[in-house]
Amino acid sequence: MQKREKLAAMLRKITDDEFDALWQDTYGYAPTSERADSVRDFVAEQYDGELDGCIQRAQSLLKPPSKPKPKNRWLAPR
Fold first, then answer.
1. Which residue range forms the structural domain that includes residue 22?
2. Single pTM value for the model
3. Distance (Å, rounded) from C-alpha 20 to C-alpha 1?
């Protein structure tokens, strides 16, 4: 799968709010077109060198946040 196709597939899976935030961070304004058109335009505008970073960012949005490890609260008997 080409990087552009992979990025487009990932951008279709994230929520609308996450995509809007990604778009705004990249371009400085909110998208006004349909989501499918915006995804296509976003992917087309990325330089080849930027694709890896965009893919990593989209992957981080798709992964659920890791749960913090519970602290060991066991106390030794006295």
1. 3-62
2. 0.68
3. 25
